[in-house]
Amino acid sequence: MNTGKNCFFSVTRLILIPQKQSAVVFLSVFLKNRFWSIDNDPPPFPTNSSNRAFIDLILKHSEEDVKIWPHRYEYRLRITLGPGGDLMLTSRIRNMNTDGKPFSFTFAYHTYFAVTDISEVRVEGLETLDYLDNLKNRERFTEQGDAITFESEIDRVYLSTPTKIAILDHERKRTFVLRKDGLPDAVVWNPWDKKAKAMPDFGDDEFKRMLCVEAACIEKPITLKPGEEWKGRQELSAVPSSYCSGQLDPRRALQSG
């Protein structure tokens, strides 16, 4: 992983669940290693793409896929870049089964934000919410702080989250704004030092300069009958932060747009 000077980058993490719920097939690496095709005839998208550059991609099941997960799907992804650098990802997943069987899945945009110093970062918009702590066997807790700050490893799924979340980078005086639709949950993750050293594709000190905040649908899996389609959207932007009373003020970012 090398964030360099980029503000953020994102990949899709899709977890497909067999109907009997006896096991979970994790296909995130599988999807990332697939070749997507350019979709030359996409259906109308609900988002306004005027004055924006965009590309439509499509991923369909193959016969090899069916051996791993016995369902047929169609995944359409529109990647949109605004004139100010805003990045929008719009996903549409359709059940293409011809045998009448539904399928279920959970979903997350695996988004890494480049930050100056993780110890000087705050996440706002998730206060007072319940979360599942993956470091404690997904035990449920309620967020007690007025913001999320970072002093050790964190791996949480916040539930029933708002449509806007702010990630405040104190040193750079920059706020990332994450807007989302169709994705009620949010994952917050940083591996910290010990886990970072154990990850082969992660630099020993890179945990200090990154934070993962994912728009997600995890607590309640999405179920599609044949012919049904699910839609989800995430938009990322970076705006200057104002500084007041010793802490960054994200109110303009959360209230705008």
Automatic annotation (TrEMBL):
One of its GO terms (molecular function) is carbohydrate binding. It catalyses: alpha-D-glucose 6-phosphate = beta-D-glucose 6-phosphate. Its EC number is 5.1.3.15. Keywords: Isomerase. Pfam families: Aldose_epim. One of its GO terms (biological process) is carbohydrate metabolic process. Belongs to the glucose-6-phosphate 1-epimerase family. This is glucose-6-phosphate 1-epimerase. It comes from Eucalyptus grandis.
